Amino acid sequence: MFISYFSSAFSSAAAGARLSLLQVSAAGILWGTAGVVVQVVAEQTGLEALAIGFYRLAAAAVVMLLLGFPARRRIWAAFRAAPVAVTVAGVGLAAYQGLYFVAVRLGGVSIATVVSLGIAPVLLSAWETLRTRQRPGTATLAASVAAIIGLVLIGGATMEPGASTAAGLGLLAAIGSGVVYAASTAISRHTMQGVEPLTLTTLSCTIGAISILPLAAAEGLAFTPEAGPIALLIYAGAITTALAYALFYTGLRRISGSVAVVVTLLEPLTAALLAVLLIDEPLGLATMIGGGLLLGAVAALYLDAGDSPEHSEPGPFPATDTTPDGRAATHH
After folding, report:
1. Which residues contact residue 178 at a Cβ distance below 8 angstroms, ignoring those fewer than 6 apart?
2. What is the pTM of this model?
3. In terms of residue numbers, what domain contains 93?
4. Which of 37, 80, 220, 307 is spaced 20 to 30 Å from 50 by Cα?
C-alpha cells in the first residue's frame, strides 16, 4: 500500500518513470544481498544451505500470506485454476534457490550469482529456438557463444592448481540452479500467463517452503536463537523476497522493458561487491572476465527481444516476471 501511495504522489510521466527506475533498481540491489546473507547466517548458526533456503521461503510466505489475506479467495482460485503449473513453479523455486544457496556455500557468492543468473536466459533462448524451429538470430548466437566462453573461463578458474574441490562443486550447483530455473519456467510459463505476479509469488513461496522442508529438516533446522541470525533470516524473506518483488512489480508498471537489463546487472554486481567488501571473497581476473561475458550475453538477449517486431509470443524469459512489453528478469 505504501508503495502505491508514493507512486501516486508523482503525477507527471517523467517523475513516475524515475520512481519506477528507483523501485526496480532497489529490487535488483536487494536480491543481490541474498548471497552474502546466506554466508553470514551459515557462519553464525552452522545451518546448511537448504535449511537457510527453507527459512527464507517460509518467512517470505508468511509475509506474502499476511499481506494477501484480503485477497485470499483470489489466491486460492489461482491455485485451483492451474494446480500443476503452480506446483511446478513452487517446487522449481525451492529447487533453484536451494541449488543457488549450495553454490554460494561451496563456490562463493560471486560465481554462484553470476553463473546461475546468466545461464538461465541463455538456455531459455536456446529452448525457444528449438521449440519454434526458427533459425537463431545473430544476437542469440553471439549471446550463446559469449555465455559458453564465460562459463569456460569461470570453470577454468575453479579448476586451477590450488582450487578446492568445493569450488568446482559450487560451479556445478550454480549451473544446476540455472538449468532448473530455465526448465521450470519453460514448463509452466504459458499456463501461468493469466496469474497475477504477486499472487504467483505468494503461492510459489508457500509451496516452495513446503517442498524443501523435508530436505532442510534432514540437514537440520535447529540453531541457537540469537538476535543477529534471526534478523538476517527475516530480512532474507521479508526484504529480499517480499519487498523486492513488490518493488519490482510496482516499478514495471511505468517503465520500458529495457530496464530489465539494469535489474539483471545490478543483482550480480551488488552480490560481487558485497562479497568482496564484507566477507573478503577473492575475485580473480578470469572469473571477472567470464562473469562479464555471461552478463553481456544476458543483456544482448534482452536488447534483442526489444528490437523484435513481434511481441505476440512471450520472449525467452520467465513469464512470471514480465515487463510491459513481454520480457522478464531473472533473479533470486
Report:
1. 96, 115, 116, 117, 118, 119, 120, 123
2. 0.81
3. 19-321
4. 80
